[in-house]
Amino acid sequence: MAVGVEEVVKELRSTYTSGKTKTHEWRASQLKAIIRIVTHHEDEIVEALRSDLKKPELESLFMRIGQRICLLCIQCFVLINGGRFFSFFFDLIEILGSTPKTQNRALGPAILYLQTQLECPVGLLCVFPVKTSMTTFPASGEIVPEPLGVVLVISTWNYPFLLSLEPVIAAIAAGNAVVLKPSEVATATSSLLSKLLGEYMDTTAVKVIEGAVPETTALLEQKWDKIFYTGSGKVGRIILAAAAKHLTPVVLELGGKCPAVVDANINLKVAARRIISGKWGCNNGQTCVSPDYVITTKEYASKLVDALSVELENFYGKDPLQSKDLSSIINAHHFDRVAKLLDDEKVSGKIVFGGQQDKTNLKIAPTIILDVPDDSLIMNEEIFGPLLPIVTVNKITESFGVINAKGKPLAAYLFTNDKKLKAEFIGSVSAGEAGLPFGGVGESGMGAYHGKFSFDAFSHKKAVLRRGFGGDVAARYPPYAPWKVQFLKALLKGNILGVLRALLAGNAVVLKPSEVAPATSSVLSKLLGKYMDTAAVRGCFQGNSCLMLSSGRRQSFNVAARYPRATHSLEAAIS
Fold first, then answer.
1. CA-CA-CA-CA torsion for 514, 518, 524, 526, nearest 10 degrees?
2. Backbone dihedral angles phi then psi of residue 465, each to the nearest 5 degrees
3. 8-state DSSP, 20
């Protein structure tokens, strides 16, 4: 076992048991600390990403300011305050006062976006009221989210900063103690995360453990209350097997072969630019939701190849290996893995664009491969690199069969103007949701996060039923008479009149509706007087069923006092 892992988990367990992480104050302080990390260490974050992935600065800025970090910042505020306006407002003023002005301008759209995602109207420790059944009447029900305990987050290398902090934020916001294990492949980012979280966070409840396979193995031997893993399906299976030993729930954010189906009669230039942006513009294909392969018709394939070739040259020049706008492959191991897919004899002769390699700088040019055989290596594993096979079919609807013959992807894309084809695509293709919530299905993973769903991923939804001591019905207790069976059957069906008929079988009943609800009281008096046996009071003493109705408090008490032999009173239950 790696040195110290067991002691780390014991310390976190002790901190969580003390109740420290469940308090609003602790959660708020830790989330604000993360905001300070991402707003005060911009240059260090960009430099770490450049060191690990040769990531262009524009990509780092886009993913950090324009999209993710603003979302992270406002997620912090909203999760801290859960929609409580004034608390949210003053926290926002506080952080804006210590945030660079260049980032303040980006917060507005993120605030509006996050407000649309919130469903909890009460606060971080929000309570969601739910309806209860007749069997528990009178009672109220609610769902109370509570933290799971001590959780483990194992991050990945392709977006090493973002995909580490997002689940950590959710775990903290939900009130958990957390261990972050960054990817050892992105060494610069892993070192930076360990340094910054160690400086800014409460290290008795938030830990970073660096290392490779031995450290990860030691972590997986411990008992966790949840494991959140982002990475490959191969490692995902190892994580799931280790979690099963302790019956630990998991979120697995994996990948898969994400298809892009391209129909004819579309704006081909726009489609080509979007495919390029999703494939090569985000980490040079090293993204779990990037298009892994394209499907189009045989007659349209040449037009698609031409459009992609033109736009790729416009984006990255005639020699893309020299382009500073293209990320490198993460390391030599992954370079060799991708190169092996390209050197396959079933594939090498079908390259129609690109294919150049520079192992010294770990770069492979954007590569398009046409009519790739289904039994080739490239079509039987996730590429996770800058290669894009194009599969051709006779009819575009045949693409559904091609997709469904493989494992379920994390995302699937369709470029078409055909409404019928869109409906068939949605109904036929199963994939994870590349939005909110974000998560896979089948071989592309399990569980989901992003936005409110991140909070839910690290929370247990506890059911709470509240009942007073009034309204206790004798029919639920022995001895069980026939009228009790009828009563309970009617109760389970929600049949109020059936309940009353059962109670009236051989008994006299005084019903006193609540005077607080005069309209309901009046309606009950009218309807029950019309449909039920309202024989004279004298008949009650002779054993006949009767119903004495009263809409006023004084009158009802007089009735109850005058006829004490009435054997059932629904006053507590009805009111």
1. 140
2. -115, 125
3. G
311 is catalytic: no
The pTM (predicted TM-score) of the whole model is 0.75
Residue type, 456: D
Beta strands at 367-370 and 387-393: parallel, antiparallel or unpaired = parallel
Tell me the pairing of strands 363-364 and 459-467.
Answer: unpaired
The first and second tokens of residue 298, run together, are: 């045989």
Angstrom distance (rounded) from CA 107 to CA 499: 57
Q: What is the DSSP letter of 477?
A: S
Residues 199-252 pLDDT 10s: 999 999 999 999 999 999 999 999 999 999 999 888 999 999 999 999 999 999
403 token code pair: 């997709």
- The catalytic residue among 253, 311, 382, 443 is 253
Q: Which of 471, 288, 474, 469 is closest to 383 using CA atoms?
A: 288
Phi, psi of 347 (to 5 degrees): -120, -40
Q: One of 73, 120, 282, 288 is an active-site residue; which one?
A: 288
For residue 81, what is the enclosing H or E element? Answer: helix 70-81
Q: What is the DSSP letter of 379?
A: G
Please confirm, yes or no, whether 73 is among the known catalytic residues: no
Long-range contacts of 28-31 (CB under 8 A, 24+ apart): 28/80, 28/91, 29/202, 30/172, 30/201, 30/202, 30/205, 30/206, 31/76, 31/77, 31/79, 31/80, 31/169, 31/172, 31/173
Which two structure tokens, joined as six digits, stand for 342? Answer: 């390209």
Element housing 251 (H / E): strand 250-253
> pLDDT for 495-541, tens place per residue?
777 777 776 664 555 566 667 777 777 776 777 676 665 542 222 32
